[in-house]
């Protein structure tokens, strides 16, 4: 069996720079310039803001990347559809991408952004796409890491988790669910949700509710989105266990909120998402509630607007699990207690 190279990087939630997503630090160019980028399993493209910002660049923490000062940068001129799509936002380019001293990728394809893509208040330089597709980091580094990577997002937003590539030793407790065939030719990692449990009991949701549009797993989406019918049933089952707690006002898309002020003990029902193969992911307490503050703790799930919208298993619900993506074997694994 061929030895797979592996590397593990620290990752932390980007609250300080205005995002609920997780950051990993990489280096572009010659000489090296360091950037903290969102890692996104729902995107297949890596990009960062670039000078001269011909459209509009938002404020970011690091100096904006200046390709004219890098000896290893080169633009790509082409008429392919993908290149034309990139040109609407910036330039398709090649550059040296450095992960560590021994993990260097010359000629890495990425987007040199000329127009703002993030919400107001987000001061991140860009993102690294870990989805599927020829432009993704996973595909461009396949010879080194064999399209295997994993991450663990900590329960405490101020703590440090990790992002690993090429991991060859799997946790003994890991359970794999096959990737959904419905998303094979897309940039997304599709998963088949077959049910939701609350307090160990299956929530009454017809299987067709989950199969209408399917579901994906996405580290770049914060809150899990469910089909409207599935969310309504989850909400109803959850509320039955929470009748002793006073309600609090809704928070944006989160409509099931509670006031935990002056309480020393909070007891909530276990919530589990069940995937194809009977793999059940029990959500950590930090993933059951989105805590704006102690007086406004909201069930961290939301309903899609339409039953035809794809469901998304977001990063809040992935906390404390080591999530392993194995695109060669077409599977995603979950191992509890991957980090705290």
Architecture blueprint of SSEs:
Elements: E1 7-13, E2 22-28, E3 33-40, E4 47-49, E5 74-75, H1 81-87, E6 90-100, E7 103-113, E8 126-129, H2 137-140, H3 142-145, E9 148-152, E10 161-165, E11 175-178, E12 189-191, E13 193-198, E14 201-202, H4 207-211, E15 215-217, E16 224-226, H5 228-240, E17 247-248, E18 257-258, E19 271-275, E20 279-282, H6 285-288, E21 289-293, E22 296-299, E23 301-303, E24 311-313, E25 322-326, E26 331-335
Parallel strand pairs: 3-8, 4-7, 15-24, 16-23
Antiparallel strand pairs: 1-2, 1-10, 2-3, 2-6, 4-8, 5-6, 6-7, 9-10, 9-25, 11-26, 12-15, 13-14, 13-19, 17-18, 18-22, 19-20, 21-22, 25-26
Question: What features would you describe in this structure?
Answer:
The protein is mainly beta. It has two domains: 7-165, Acid Proteases (Cathepsin D, subunit A, domain 1); 175-335, Acid Proteases (Cathepsin D, subunit A, domain 1, Beta Barrel), CATH 2.40.70.10. 11% of the residues lie in helices and 36% in strands. The protein contains six helices and 26 strands. The strands form five sheets. It has a six-stranded mixed β-barrel with strand order 2-3-8-4-7-6. A four-stranded antiparallel sheet has the order 14-13-19-20. A four-stranded antiparallel sheet has the order 17-18-22-21. The relative contact order is 0.17. The mean pLDDT is 93. It comes from Corchorus capsularis. InterPro entries: Aspartic_peptidase_A1, PEPTIDASE_A1, Peptidase_aspartic_dom_sf, TAXi_C, TAXi_N. This is Peptidase A1. Belongs to the peptidase A1 family. Residues 22-335 form the Peptidase A1 domain.
């Amino acid at each position: 069996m061929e030895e797979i190279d592996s590397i593990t990087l620290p990752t932390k939630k980007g609250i300080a720079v205005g995002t609920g997503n997780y950051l990993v630090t990489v280096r572009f160019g010659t000489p090296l310039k360091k950037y903290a980028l969102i890692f996104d399993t729902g995107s297949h493209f890596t990009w960062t803001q670039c000078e001269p910002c011909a459209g509009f660049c938002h404020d970011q923490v690091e100096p904006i990347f200046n390709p004219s000062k890098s000896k290893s940068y080169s633009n790509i001129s082409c008429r392919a559809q993908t290149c034309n799509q990139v040109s609407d936002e910036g330039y398709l380019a090649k550059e040296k991408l450095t992960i560590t001293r021994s993990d260097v990728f010359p000629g890495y394809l990425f987007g040199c952004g000329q127009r703002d893509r993030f919400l107001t208040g987000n001061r991140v330089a860009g993102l690294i796409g870990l989805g599927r597709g020829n432009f993704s980091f996973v595909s461009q580094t396949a010879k080194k890491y064999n399209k295997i990577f994993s991450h663990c997002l900590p329960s405490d937003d101020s703590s440090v988790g990790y992002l690993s590539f090429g991991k060859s030793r799997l946790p003994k407790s890991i359970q794999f669910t096959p990737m959904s065939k419905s998303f094979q030719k897309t940039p997304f990692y599709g998963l088949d949700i077959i049910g939701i449990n609350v307090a160990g009991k299956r929530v009454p949701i017809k299987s067709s509710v989950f199969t209408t549009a399917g579901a994906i797993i996405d580290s770049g989406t914060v809150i899990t989105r469910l089909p409207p019918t599935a969310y309504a049933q989850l909400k109803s089952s959850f509320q039955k266990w929470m009748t002793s707690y006073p309600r609090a006002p809704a928070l944006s898309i989160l409509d099931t909120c509670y006031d935990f002020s002056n309480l020393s003990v909070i007891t909530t029902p276990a919530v589990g998402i069940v995937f194809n193969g009977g793999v059940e992911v029990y959500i950590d307490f930090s993933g059951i509630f989105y805590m704006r503050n102690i007086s406004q703790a909201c069930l961290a799930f939301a309903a899609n607007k339409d039953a035809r919208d794809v469901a998304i298993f977001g990063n809040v619900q992935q906390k404390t699990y080591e999530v392993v993506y194995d695109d060669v074997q077409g599977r995603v694994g979950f191992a509890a207690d991957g980090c705290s």
